[in-house]
Amino acid sequence: MRVGRGRHLVLAMPGRAFAQRFAYAILACAAITLMIISQAEPRLAEQLRVGITDAVAPIFDFFSRPAETIAGGVDELQGIMAVHERNQVLEADNDRLRRWQAVAEQLSYENEMFRRLLNVVPDQRARFISARVIADSGGPFVHLVMVNAGQAHGVRKGQAVVNHDGLVGRVQEAGKHTARVLLLTDLNSRIPVVLEESRERTILRGDNSPQPYLAFLATGARVKPGDRLVTSGEGGMFPPALDVGIVSAVDKDRATVQPFVVWERLDYVTILDYVVPGVFPETRRAARTGSLQ
Amino acid sequence: MGDWLHQTERWLRGLIPVTVTVMLVFAAALPWRLPAFVEVTPAFAVMVVFYWTIYRPERLPYVATFGIGVLQDLLAGTPLGMTALLLLVVQGVVASQRTFFRGKPFLVIWWGFSMVMPAAGLLAWVIGSACLGTLVPLLPVVTQIVLTVLLFPVFVLLFRPLGALASPRPG
Questions:
Q1: What is the pLDDT of residue A123?
Q2: Which of A141, A190, A211 best probes binding to B when mutated, by most B CB atoms within 10 angstroms?
Q3: What does CATH list as the number for A127-273?
Q4: What is the number of other CB atoms lying within 10 angstroms of the CB of residue A46?
Q5: Which of B54, B64, B42, B58 shows the shortest CA–CA distance to B10?
Q6: Residue A284's closest CA among A126, A120, A118, A112?
Q7: Tens-digit pLDDT profile for residues A122-135
Q8: Is residue B16 part of a domain?
Q9: 3-state SS assignment for residue B19
């Protein structure tokens, strides 16, 4: 009996090993084919990704809550440890901000007056879609997060995504109930920005590090650490004047930027359903002047 | 009846390695927001494939590895097929050295992993750079390699009892 079993094994093993090798080769080829197809037909890969993402979204939605609780717990603990120090900083901040508030109120009133005087056409108001971050891929190759709002809620590819700190990134793919947001630190992220002080226009490029950098700075451009960056609204993808970050270091030909968004605290985001001003400006202006006459 | 129960039990136990791997792939994609994880998530899948290929190779067929890789690519947004190929390469290399690793003390296994992981990371970097059409910065990749190698013993502590559970009951 035992002998028979042994013989059977001897006979079966090479066949099995061969089958396994064959399967291995086929699967490796399949993986390579997948890579080539997704490069040649990015739309197909995108559709597949969106489909799968939508299908597994409920799982992420469910499990991201406890994950969020753990993250919240860690935050809380860090907060408790630094409570005294933070209180002092906050009090100082509060004092400073009160003074700013007075200035802002005055300026806002003044601005309103000027606008009325000049008859300025107001910018289109953006519609907001608030969503929760349910997955965060966090790898060395891509910086994406998944949010629980999609086409059913009005999310479209290309829309700007912000949170209370500033610009987060843009919608890369929108499924039915979920969307993927390409963070501004991602290698593929390009955002038209303007330096608030010098009005220098440039592009903020991600490089998968926490600090993106300014590409295409004109020679002799006036950039210094501490300069604030906001979106320029060029290209029409993003609304202008969204907070982006602060220039943290300037080298010979490279200025790195510290984004305002704290990635550790990225839980809720707002997607801006922004209509580009200038799509129907003539008709609007005509209607306006018409109504004035 | 008893035979049927036994079969089902064996089958369920056999599913443990694949289930654990899939769960880890999902867990890695959750928004943990722990300070170190935001930047770089450890390559859980490589760890798991390395471990099961040594200790329970029959429980992790190549098809499962391929599926897990594609799932991770879809979830993380990495170029489709990249992780699948990477995991298959890791599994192939480790399977060829399996007889060497079997029965060796943990330090040898860890040393083996600290050899395989950088190679896998660099391969991922080459494939990733080729797919994305630009040189991906190397530092996050290196960080991921170091983090994964350092976390390996912690996960082995977790896999061991699961591995025992995954093998059919003796006798």
A1: 61
A2: A141
A3: 2.40.10.340
A4: 17
A5: B58
A6: A120
A7: 665 667 889 988 88
A8: yes
A9: helix
Q: Indicate yes or no: CB of B74 within 8 angstroms of CB of A180.
A: no
pLDDT, tens digit, 9 for 90 and up, residues A57-73: 888 887 777 766 776 77
CA B15, B20, B25, B31 torsion: positive or negative?
A: positive
Can you give the residue ranges of every domain in chain A? 44-118, 127-273
How far apart CA A64 and CA B67 sit, in angstroms, is 23
pLDDT (tens digit per residue) in B109-150: 999 999 999 999 999 999 989 888 888 888 888 988 998 999
Nearest chain A residue to B84, by CA: A31
- How far is the C-alpha of B43 from the C-alpha of B46, rounded, in Å? 6
Point out the residue among A140, A187, A264 whose CB comes nearest to the CB of B38. Answer: A264
Q: Is residue B127 part of a domain?
A: yes
Q: Choose among B46, B66, B64: nearest CA to B113.
A: B46
A241: contact with B, CB 8 A cutoff: no
Interface contact B74-A33, CB threshold 8 A: no
Q: To the nearest whole angstrom, how far is the Cα of B148 from the nearest Cα of chain A? A: 12
What's the pTM? 0.76
Number of H helices, E strands in chain B: 9, 0
Chain A 147-176, residues with CB within 8 Å of chain B CB atoms: 172
Around A243, how many Cα atoms within 13 Å sit in the side-chain half-sphere?
Answer: 12
Cβ partners under 8 Å of residue A137, min gap 6? A143, A144, A145, A146, B29, B41, B75, B76, B77, B78
Residue B2 belongs to a domain: no
CA distance A103 to chain B (A): 37
How many residues does this entry show for chain B?
Answer: 171
- From the list A64, A172, A208, the residue facing B31 with the nearest CB is A64
User: Which residues of chain B does A147 touch, with a Cβ-Cβ cutoff of 8 Å?
Assistant: none
Is B3 inside any structural domain?
Answer: no
Min Cα–Cα distance to chain A from B80, Å: 5
User: Residue B55: which domain range?
Assistant: 9-162
- Encode B17-49: b = buried (16+ Cβ within 10 Å), e = exposed: bbebbbebbbebbbbbbeeebbbbbbbbbbbbb
Give the nearest partner residue to B31 out of A33, A59, A135, using CB atoms.
A135
